[in-house]
Amino acid sequence: MVVPLSGVTAEDIAQVGGKGAALGELIRSLRHAGVRVPDGFVVTSEAFRAHLHEAGLTDWPQRRLEGIDTRDTAAVSAAGTEIGVVT
After folding, report:
1. Which residues pair with 4 in a beta bridge?
2. Are 65 and 79 in contact (CB under 8 A)?
3. Cβ burial, residue 62 (10 Å; 0-12/13-18/19+)
4. Upper half-sphere CA count for residue 49 (Cβ side, 13 Å)
5. Binning pLDDT at 50, 70 and 90, where does residue 5 land?
6. What is the DSSP string of 39-57?
7. 18-60 pLDDT per residue, tens
């Protein structure tokens, strides 16, 4: 499911994640203050999990992290980038 950011509030964090909820709140508060902000959208967590399942990627992030030495910041960063956690 795709949700317009203009309809997202902090109460939606479980469905849209922290960044999505924060952007929704920011857009709502800026519009209320008279600032014109272009709207965007967020893909819900449920839709993202469905995509991972359909693409056969449900277990891949966990498998990629197995055996990583958490003290090796370069390895953790590389794995996070590969998985898409780190931007």
Report:
1. 41
2. yes
3. exposed
4. 7
5. very high
6. --EEE-HHHHHHHHHHTT-
7. 999 999 999 988 888 888 878 899 999 999 889 988 988 888 8
The two tokens of residue 37 are: 């902000």
For tokens 């203009």, what's the residue? 6
**Residue matched to tokens 């055996």:** 67
Q: What is the DSSP string of the chain?
A: -EEEGGG--GGGHHHHHHHHHHHHHHHHHHHHTT------EEE-HHHHHHHHHHTT-SSHHHHHHTT--TT-HHHHHHHHHHHTS--
Question: Which backbone phi and psi does 61 adopt, to 5 degrees?
Answer: -60, -40
